[in-house]
Specification:
Blueprint lengths: L4 E6 L10 H10 L2 E6 L4 H13 L4 E5 L11 H11 L4 E10 L7 H18 L3 E6 L2 H11 L6 E3 L6 H9 L3 E4 L10 H6 L8 E3 L25 H12 L3 H16 L3
Parallel strand pairs: 1-2, 2-3, 3-4, 4-5, 5-6, 6-7, 7-8
Length: 264
């Protein structure tokens, strides 16, 4: 294996990693997942993600945002924490932020308000945006269309949608993050049919650890916890679906991630 990979979305501040976080990272480095973006999704995880990035200053970066599930908790303190994190060079994006009408753990109005507030932060600071969307396509696109021309870059993290939404996301300028969902024969097969639509310069890959363990892994891990070391399995599945070599997909996704997040 002669390529390096960037995992643009790993929730390594999650408590499921508390007992072996350093080992998890070493396993990732051992398979050339050399750069990881630690996702911030709440006041607490934003601080924890940045602290973790500081412990591995060559390989780790973080994001800072409030997930739509936590939108009801978004207040001035949340805003201040995100802005403060972004003053550190290791915090390189606003998010995870967006809309989630699948569970509606926060009311839709609260989600829209928190989403717009975080897009304002991205506009003020010039940082790219790490986006979440589930069952909220129309509102999501409507909010983004009005602000994207004034934002530097935005990625649809963990894209799981159909062809029409993919084409619409590409048309408004989004990058696309693909996870192990594409390895799930029960609900991700459609992604294999459409992932080739994504231009080479807009594709990125991610594990979304500890979620979305790739179901194609052999032998199957004893634990259902996903981790960054499994990113090569996602790469392999994407490359096959796109009719490209793993080396090519590794090269383009790594270059895209470094350009998108402004990292070396």
């Amino acid at each position: 294996m002669h390529y390096e990979l960037v995992d643009i979305g790993a929730n390594l501040a999650h408590d499921s990693f508390d007992d072996d976080r350093d080992d998890v990272l070493q396993r990732a480095f051992d398979v050339n997942v050399n750069t990881l973006l630690i996702t911030g999704s709440s006041d607490e995880s934003n601080v924890a993600a940045l602290e973790l990035a500081g412990r591995y200053p060559v390989q780790l970066y973080s994001t800072a945002g409030v997930h739509p599930h936590h939108a009801s908790d978004y207040d001035e303190k949340s805003d201040d924490i995100i802005r403060k994190c972004l003053t550190d060079d290791r915090c390189v994006a606003v998010g995870e932020c967006g809309l989630d009408y699948f569970r509606n753990l926060s009311p839709r109005e609260a989600q829209l308000e928190a989403f717009r507030a975080q897009l304002d932060i991205a506009g003020d600071t010039g940082h790219p945006v790490f986006l979440h969307q589930r069952n909220a396509h129309d509102d999501f696109v409507e909010v983004l269309e009005s602000v994207l021309p004034k934002r530097s870059r935005a990625v649809a993290h963990c894209f799981t949608g159909e062809s029409e939404s993919l084409r619409e996301f590409l048309a408004i300028g989004l990058y696309i993050g693909i996870t192990g969902w594409i390895c799930d024969e029960r609900r991700g097969e459609h992604l294999k049919d459409i992932v080739a639509v994504i231009p080479d310069d807009r594709l990125m890959i991610e594990t979304d650890s500890p979620y979305l363990l790739p179901r194609t892994l052999r032998p199957r891990p004893k634990s259902r916890r996903n981790e960054p070391a499994y990113l090569p399995e996602i790469l392999k599945t994407i490359a096959a679906a796109r009719g490209q070599t793993e080396e090519h997909v590794a090269a383009i996704t790594t270059a895209n991630a470094k350009r998108f997040f402004g990292i070396s």
